[in-house]
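**User:** Once you have settled down, spend some time on the protein underneath, comparing sequence with C-alpha cells, and judge whether sequence predicts the C-alpha cells.
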Amino acid sequence: MDSSLDLYTYRVSCMLLHGLEAKDCVPGTGCVRRLRGTGFIGVVNGASCDAVSLVMMRLVFYTQMVTIPEYYTGKNVLITGATGFMGKVLLEKLLRSCPGVKAAYVLVRPKASQSPSARIADMINCKLFDRLREEQPDFAEKIVPVDSDLTQPELDLSKEDQDTLTDCINIVFHCAATIRFNEPLKPKSVLVYNCTTGAINPFHWGEVENCINMTFKTNPLEQAFRRPNVNLRSNPFTNQYWTTVSHTIPALLYDAYLWLTGQKPRSVWCVIDLREAVGNKLLSLFLWRRRMMKTITRLHKAMMVLEYFTSHSWVWNTDNVTMLLNQLGAEDRKVFNFDVRQLHWAEYMENYCMGTKKYVLNEELSGLPAARKHLNKLRNIRYTFNTVLVILIWRVFIARSQMARNIWYFVVSLCFKFLSYFRASSTLRY
C-alpha cells in the first residue's frame, strides 16, 4: 500500500469529519488522531504509518462522512485577515453556508483611530453581507473581534485573549498576507491546494482585453473622464509611448486646468483609460480621484510591483484540489462548488465589470441610457481630436517636405490598388 497517498487522503478527510478536533490534525507530528464516537484511535508519525491502521481509518472516513455544514456545527473558528478582500468573503460564506458555526473569532488591529469592533461593524455593513443579513439577522453576534497585530511578537495578543483562543478554537483560517509582492517566500512542508485555472480552464490576456472592452461598450460608465479601454501590449517601447500619451500628458493637462481655473481636485470617482504596464503587458481601467498626476504616479508604482508575476508563467499541479473535490458529497458540491472547469470567463468578466459599476461606483442600471450618450460624446471628442492631430502632422511634416509627400502618395496609391484588386477579385468570384 502507498502509505503516503493514504496519509494524504487522511489529512483531507480530517477537514470534513464531524468531531475531529483541529488540535488532533497536525500533519507530520507523531501524534494521536482520535475519531470521537467511533472508539477508534490511529497513530500517524510523519510520512509513514501502519498500513492496517490506514485501512481502518479509510473505512471509518467513508462510512461516517458528514457534510461540511455538519462538521462546522458547534465549532469556534479563528480567522486572520478577515477585513481583507479574501477574508471578508470567507467570513460571509462560512456564516451563511454553515449556520451552525458557534463563533468566528477575527484578529483585527486598530486602524485610523478605529477599534477592532468598529472596523468589523463597518465591514459587515457593506453589500457583501446583505444576503447573510437577510437570512440570519443576528449573524453579527457570532463575530468576536480580537485586538491583535500579526507583525508584533505573540501577535500582540493580551494574556487573556491568548488563554481564550487556546481553550476554545477548533479551526484556524490564516488569510492575512502582505501586499508587498516582492517579499521573500518561506516555504514549508505542508499539503498545498492549488486552486488555479491555467491548466484546465485557461484565460488569456487577449480574452481579458476583449471581454472588458465589450462589457463597457454595452454598459458604459456614467462618470467616465475618457473612454474606458483595455489595451494589452508586449513591446516596452510602445508601452512607454502609450504611458506618456495616455497617462502623463492628460494628467498634466488636467492638473494644469484645475490650477488655472482655481478649482480644487474632484472628490468624486472617475474612470480613465489607463494603459499601464503590467510587466510586459498593459492593463487599463483604473479609478482615480483627487490630483490626477499624483494618482497615476502611484498606480504606475503599484503596477510595476506585479511585473515579475505577469511577465512569467508557471505550471501549477491541481491534483490535490481534484482529490478534495472528489471527496465532496452531492449536497456539498452544490453549496461549496469550487470546480473551476465550470467557470465561464466571459460571464465572469461581465459580472466583474458590472459589479465595479454598481458596488464601487454606485451606478444603477437605470442610468445606462445617459451613460451611452456620454460614451458617444467621448467617442466623438476622440475622433475630432485624432482628426485635428492628423491635420497638424500633415501641415508640419508632409506639406513641408517633398520626400514626405512622395512617401505619402505612394502609400495612398498602394492602398487604392489593393482595394481595387480586392473588389475585382470579389466580382469575379461571384
